[in-house]
Amino acid sequence: MPSDSVPVGIHDLTFRTTSLQLTHAELAGHTGVPLAKYHRGIGQKAMSIPAPDEDVVTMAADAAAAVVGRHGADRIRTLVFATETSIDQAKAGGLYVHSLLGLPPHIRVVELKQACYGATAALQFATALVHRDPDQQVLVLASDIARYDLDSPGEPTQGAAAAAFLVTARPALLEIDTPSGVFTREVMDFWRPNYRTTALVDGRASIDAYLHALTGAFGDYRRRGGATLRDIHTICYHQPFTRMAHKAHHHLLQQAGLPAGPQDIAAALAPTTTYNELLGNSYTASLYVALAALLDSGTPLDGETVGLFSYGSGSVAEFLTATVRPGYRDHLRTEAHHAAVTDRRPVGYAAYRDLHGSGLPTDGSRYATAASTPGPYRLAGIRDHRRLYETNGPAAGPTAATTGTATDRGVPGEGEGGGG
Ligand code: COA
Questions:
Q1: Alpha carbons within 13 A on the beta-carbon side of 403
Q2: Residues annotated as region Disordered (predicted)?
């Protein structure tokens, strides 16, 4: 039975990232760019760097395992994997997560793409499914690695993370409100042709397109009966670099004729940028990492309306709001989030450039990745054009029993090894 009266929203939210990081202090020490340009000009202090055996699947599986570990998988009927770092032209990355976690078979698994907007499309897709049948749950995974060419303007805005959230009826964290505002316009501000591993971006055009889409989506939201800016406690913006959120908030306030001083904007947005300024851009995950930061910030939000602005270059944007559930703080994962950020090992500039330059073979030849990640899942290698994943250390068990490990398939130790 369709049920519009049952509140639907985000019941659990978490994120994970890679095990390595490059600080902008280290980057500035070699590029000669003033550190203040990174710290203040773009608002970034560090960026997550994937180890050779980490990718969007291993990050997403790590985040998803936490959600499934807390709530079980019995009621999950759909798993949506949102990414613009797709590892296959045909097969959804979520299928590897499904296998690694040993999830039940009666789950539809699909991948969604529209640049950084994909996870918000997934959220709306999930919300509709749960309204139709409030007994079912939808697991949304947003996982991306932002890679630009070395020595390009985009380089300091690289990063990586995976967010996982469970969409349910009567959620513990946030109810998704209606209406939402959407805006679409075809524009070449950022794209990645299939033959490239790094994105192409016209940075200035992407800032303009983002602000143009914000005006369009927020205007649509207001015309459809959405709240005024004064009624929204805090807005989480998509953060390709955290200074972009400042530009966006300034833009909205100015258009509404509200005071838009830099100090006030910095104070309003600080709770939403604490993780992303250390992780870098995580494309689809970025907005949901910003939301996690806000919820974890200690700002009392019970019953408050928070705004979410999602922008995917190319471009599609959406502005929506959510109402924070009283008692939400009992369901947060603040400690795990701090650990994900602080446990990363720093890499030096030379090692970072080596990692950036290395890649998986594209001819299907047998290849073993160097064992590096301390995370629960790893990309062991490639054989016969297939990616081989395995559980890592103590987490091994149910996954190995379900899928067979890559070790069983004889990959590690064979092939060229190193890099990835
Ligand atoms: N101290 C403090 N700030 C400084 C500075 C210094 N020494 N030197 C420069 N800055 C400021 C600039 O004034 C500028 O601020 P502004 O944007 O408010 O004017 C900012 O730092 C960036 O400087 P800029 O010269 O424009 O940098 P850039 O040419 O290296 O490009 C980006 C910056 C963000 C455009 C670039 O990193 C990029 O393209 N990133 C990718 C964007 C993206 O991912 N878009 C797609 C998704 S929306």
A1: 23
A2: 390-420
